[in-house]
Amino acid sequence: MCGITGIVLKKGEVVPKELLQKMTDSMLHRGPDEEGVHVDGNVGIGMRRLSIMDVAGGSQPLFSEDKTIAMVGNGEIYNYRELQKDVADRHTFRTSTDMEVVAPLYQKFGLEFLNRMEGMFGLAVWDKAKNKLHLIRDRIGIKPLFVSISDEAIIFSSDINSILASGKTSVSLNESAVNNYFNYRFGALGNESFFNGITSLFPGQIMTIDTETLAITTSNFHDAITFSKEELYTSSEAELIEELDARLRASVTKRLMADVPLGTLLSSGIDSTLLTAIANDINGNKVDAFTICYAEKEYDESADAKESADHLGIAWHPHFVSNEEYTSLIVEGIRKNEAPITHPNSLSVQLITKIARENGYKVLLSGEGADELFAGYGRTSNLFHLSNIQKKYPDLLLKFLAGSGLKFDKREGAILDALSKKDASKLLSEYFSVVEQEFIPQATIPAFMKNLGGQMDFNQLFNHILQVEQRSYMQELLLRQDKMSMWSSMEVRVPFVGDPNVVSFANRVPIELKLKDGINKYLLRKVAEKYLPKHICYRRKRGFGSPIGAWLRQKDQLKDLAYSVADSEHMTKEQKAYYSKMLGQHVSGQADNYEIVWKMMNYLLFRQEYRI
Fold first, then answer.
1. Exposure check for the chain: N or C terminus, fewer CB within 10 A?
2. Alpha carbon distance 408, 440 (integer Å)
3. At 195, is the pLDDT very low, low, confident or very high (cuts 50, 70, 90)?
4. What is d(CA 139, CA 186) in angstroms, rounded to the nearest whole number?
5. What count of Cα atoms within 13 Å lies in the side-chain half-sphere of residue 158?
6. Do the beta carbons of residue 147 and residue 160 sit within 8 Å?
7. Does residue 251 lie in a domain region?
């Protein structure tokens, strides 16, 4: 696990090593163990390394046998040992790091080699003979890769801050990301960031730069935007339970690959608990588990997590977070996140990975992505309920009940209307919407969301809704997990969504086996019954929350930070009045406004931090 960066200047120019050094230095947290750079005329690539595989000998950049191919990579390639056999005829392996296989594979198979790889990665492959630099992102989008394109230079990096450190890109605010941030459950969508002119590669995308002309072409080795067209499974429930168990075990087994200690992120939820149980069953050395905890009982998962750890007989490491500790991280967290912090629990991810790192761990397993695969969110269950109602009752009756407010609230009424009219864009807009607010009202439905809605088939509504989740909300969660864990110099692996065999399986399971008898993630819980006591398998979903609302009402720390931006230059007179009203109502207990206060505060701190 590392951070990669690089730059392509105009033909005839030479990349200054000190510039590349400045860009890699900005990512020290991503790879504190060592660094490496390679300059070839107007092309420079660099990296910071967190050594996981071949701790002593896996330095990058890595080269083909004849030195005409150079590469840097961030992530892990889980099937590298099998891939080494494919190029044994042309390459003598000098290390046991997984990334050494990339250059010889590319040299032998061209970009088709990507279809052979399983893993999470951001790669830069420099082909000197063809004057081509290929930037590549894994098919799920677990590892980030950003790029800035101008007439002067093309710059790429795992971190936006590294691109900014080059001094060769201008900084301005992407208003569409801000609109999404305030009105939906995510910020930047698709390949956007919060910065104009800095975009992300799509998952499964290849960007090829002609280093003589600076011409750019893009292609996909995996189409991460188009929905799967495969038919849903008709197998029995028992058969699907066995198949899911086998695929999860295979995925976890691959992700236990490491030359350093490995643990798990354990909450009270079924996702992390099941992964911990499977890893513990496979790994005879036992895995340690790490849990974030709070004094505020409504948010504290320590009792349930401890019960799971005790049942599995593994070491458990809780960490209780205070208002003071949490608040002290927010400004730096925004800088590491390179965006306003949409989800307050992002900082909890940083804290628990930091604790694991201090305990000697470099790799953790996480249950991220299971909700998007197996219908774990309340909004999905609510949509399932509304869809069944819409099919059962006449539209006129539903319209009356929604309009009267007797049966449905405003949002539910809008969802029923969208279901009735089969209006996918409106449905997605309501499905992902957050609490109404006046700070930055919704402008238009995001174009990327409309694009996804255009693919939806209402005959496969929930299969497609969950695929929208995977292409939007889940992408933000994967990005925040990368940013927050790498802030702690910690690698986090995601067996649920990291393995295409699990993803493709989940996307073919009928919704009736994901939401059954009022139980969400039903099929996943049935698998868990093979490893855990039944009462643990069917615990009420808590969600990975943080006590922001309570802390905003306490005397110091978070409340003081919120008030510190009340007169920010980045607000209009009307916005200042609205901010003060929302914050004052919340602090006094008149209303529960913590969600919008959190968003406004983070937005203002982000603009203050980046001066945009």
1. C
2. 26
3. very high
4. 20
5. 35
6. no
7. yes
Residue 55 has pLDDT above 90, yes or no: no
- Does the CA dihedral 160-166-169-170 come out positive or negative? positive
**179, part of any domain:** yes
Residue 23 exposed, middle or buried by CB count within 10 Å (0-12, 13-18, 19+): buried
Beta carbons within 10 angstroms of residue 281's beta carbon: 13
Same domain for 415 and 294: no
pLDDT for position 62: 95
Strand order in the sheet with 288-294: 316-321, 288-294, 262-265, 363-365, 491-493
Give CA–CA dist 341/487, Å, rounded. Answer: 14
Tens digit of each residue's pLDDT (9 = 90 or more) over 292-334:
999 898 889 999 999 999 999 999 999 999 999 999 999 999 9
Whether 325 and 262 map to the same domain: the answer is yes
Residue 76 and residue 208 in one domain: yes
As a whole number, mean pLDDT of residues 570-579 equals 98
81, amino acid identity: R
Instruction: Specify the CATH number for the domain of residue 138.
Output: 3.60.20.10
Question: DSSP H helical segments within 393-472, as ranges?
Answer: 395-404, 410-421, 424-431, 447-453, 461-471
Domain count, the chain: 4
Same domain, residue pair 451 and 478? no
Say if 231 falls within a structural domain.
Answer: no
Q: Which residue has the tokens 């163990």?
A: 33
Closest among 238, 243, 250, 266 to 536, alpha carbons compared: 266
Strand pairing category for 69-77 and 153-157: unpaired
Judge if 113 and 20 occupy the same domain: yes
Which residue matches tokens 């107007």? 42
CATH number of residue 509's parent domain: 3.40.50.620
Same domain for 254 and 354, yes or no, is: yes
Residue 260 pairs in a beta bridge with none
39 — alpha (psi -120 to 50), left (phi > 0) or beta? beta
Q: In what order do the strands lie in the sheet with 34-40?
A: 34-40, 43-49, 2-9, 153-157, 146-149, 198-200
Question: Could you report the per-residue pLDDT of 198-225, keeping only the tens digit for each?
Answer: 999 999 999 999 999 999 999 999 999 9
Say which residues have a Cβ less than 8 Å from residue 427's Cβ, sequence separation at least 6: 415, 418, 419, 453, 456
Percent of the chain whose pLDDT exceeds 90: 86
Do residues 291 and 360 both lie within one domain? yes
Contact 329, 350 (CB under 8 A): yes
Tokens standing for 229?
């067209």
Cβ atoms of 181 and 442 closer than 8 Å = no
Q: Residues 466-506: pLDDT tens digits?
A: 999 999 999 999 999 999 999 999 999 999 999 999 999 99
Same domain, 423 and 504: no
Section 60-77 average pLDDT: 95
Amino acid identity of 387?
S
> How many other C-beta atoms can be found within 10 angstroms of the C-beta atom of residue 411?
17
Domain span including residue 555 = 548-610
For residues 205 and 202, what is the distance between their CA atoms, to the nearest angstrom?
A: 5
Whole-structure pTM value: 0.95
